[in-house]
Amino acid sequence: MKSLILTLATAATLAIPIAAARAEVPPALPTSLAADTRQQLARNLELKADVARAREQYYIAANWYIAALRYDAANPSLYIKLGITEMKIGDMDTARKDFALAVKHDPSNVDALNNLGAVYTLQRRYRPAVRYLKEALALDESKAATHLNLAEAWAGQKQMDRAMTEYARALELDADILNSTDKEGVFAQVSTPEQKALVSFMIARAYVKRGNIEGALDYLRQAKEQHYKELASVYTDPAFTPLWKDPRLAEIVKPQGEIAKR
């Protein structure tokens, strides 16, 4: 399943909490309904929620997902979609609880595990974040977004070597990871300005190794525009050696001290 990449670090917290919205949902029909009837009703409500979410009508979408869960309370997909909606609203605590319910109903659900780890990362609770993200990768190592989320969690614990390893793997899997999107809308990715600057720098590094000098310079310019703090390290990192004699590098970041005398 492909994954929609969401920018969640700046999600705004609105006035009405999701918990209050839950109370506005009408009660489900009697439990005596046949199982297939209940599932069809849940599916119809889920489709209404999907449409509202696509229109960025997040409170309306949340209400429809909650209503659907009253007919199909063990459906992890509904909890995941509800949690994503709550993240877009800014209700991280409720989103975390719903992702945890998705994991409870389906412990091997990679989307749920990733999203739970992403919420913990955004809440700066890095240890549980690492736990769930590692569980997700143990089930599917090919998820670039999960590697990126794990990199953020490691960085939050000042474990930069581990963070850099995960950033590199994310880029190896998807060189355009920060701009990747799809149609599902069930996979959360942490995104911060600092992350974008670092990833631009790492892409530049990878391009130099591949001999793509123009691409490397372009991404170094982006890293500069994104205020990457370690930009001067291009003059001490051997990977950038092919650029040291290129006058365009000095236009991006000026060498200092002994480096300038090379």
Backbone shape: elongated
The portion of residues forming beta strands comes to under 5%
- The CATH architecture classification of the largest domain is Alpha Horseshoe
Looking at CATH, the homologous superfamily of the largest domain is: Tetratricopeptide repeat domain
Q: What are the segments in which pLDDT stays under 50 over at least 5 consecutive residues? A: 1-16
- What percentage of residues falls in helices of 4 or more residues? 55-70%
Largest sheet report: none
Structural class category: mainly alpha
Top CATH class of the largest domain? Mainly Alpha
Amino- and carboxy-terminal Cα gap: 50 Å
What characteristics describe this protein?
single chain, 262 residues, mainly alpha, 2 domains, 0% strand, disordered N terminus
Structure write-up:
With 262 residues, this protein is mainly alpha-helical. Helix 7 packs antiparallel against helix 8, helix 8 runs antiparallel to helix 9 (160-173) and helix 10 (193-210) runs antiparallel to helix 11. It has 12 helices and no strands. It has 2 domains: 18-191, Tetratricopeptide repeat domain (Serine Threonine Protein Phosphatase 5, Tetratricopeptide repeat, Alpha Horseshoe), CATH 1.25.40; 194-261, no CATH class. The chain is 60% helix and 0% strand.
SSE inventory with pairings:
Elements: H1 18-23, H2 35-54, H3 58-69, H4 76-89, H5 92-105, H6 110-122, H7 126-139, H8 144-156, H9 160-173, H10 193-210, H11 213-225, H12 247-252
How would you briefly describe this protein structure?
The protein has helices at residues 18-23, 35-54, 58-69, 76-89, 92-105, 110-122, 126-139, 144-156, 160-173, 193-210, 213-225, 247-252.
